[in-house]
Amino acid sequence: MSIRMRHTKAHRNERRAHHGLKPLQAGTCPKCKSIIMPHNVCANCGTYRGREEIDVLAKLTKKERKQKEKELAATEPSNQPQGEPSMEEMSKS
After folding, report:
1. Is 64 contained in some domain?
2. Where do Basic residues bias regions lie (predicted)?
3. What is each CA distance from 22 to 4, 10, 17, 64, in whole angstroms?
4. Which of 28, 66, 78, 85 has a 20 to 30 A CA-CA distance from 91?
């Protein structure tokens, strides 16, 4: 029985060419703008395709829940005016 032939570096590397890792195709959550994987629920806000699927606040402690609500309120645009209008704004109308 004879010894098998040696494979060159080129043949070895050609065989291993498809073993490389491909970059991940991550997207962004439309609600909180955090990075998410496609076809997965957002771990930050619990939404999937515009619907809230998981209540992320249910598992948190009171302190963490308050902080999370504050973050979510900051990311969502509010239509309510901020505080009372100043004297200059009132005099313009």
Report:
1. yes
2. 1-21
3. 33, 21, 12, 36
4. 78
In a domain, 42, yes or no: yes
pLDDT at 16 over 90: yes
Quick check: is 58 in a domain?
Answer: yes
- Residue the block writes with tokens 């939404």: 47
Q: Where would I find the H helices in 16-86?
A: 62-75
- Identify whether 79 is part of a domain: no
Q: Identify whether the C-beta of residue 44 lies closer than 8 Å to the C-beta of residue 52.
A: no
Q: Which two tokens stand for residue 75?
A: 């990311």
Structural domain containing residue 54: 23-68
Can you name the residues that pair with 54 across neighbouring β-strands? none
Global pTM value = 0.47
- What's the pLDDT band for 36 if we cut at 50, 70, 90? very high
| In the predicted structure, residue 89 carries a pLDDT above the cut 60 | yes
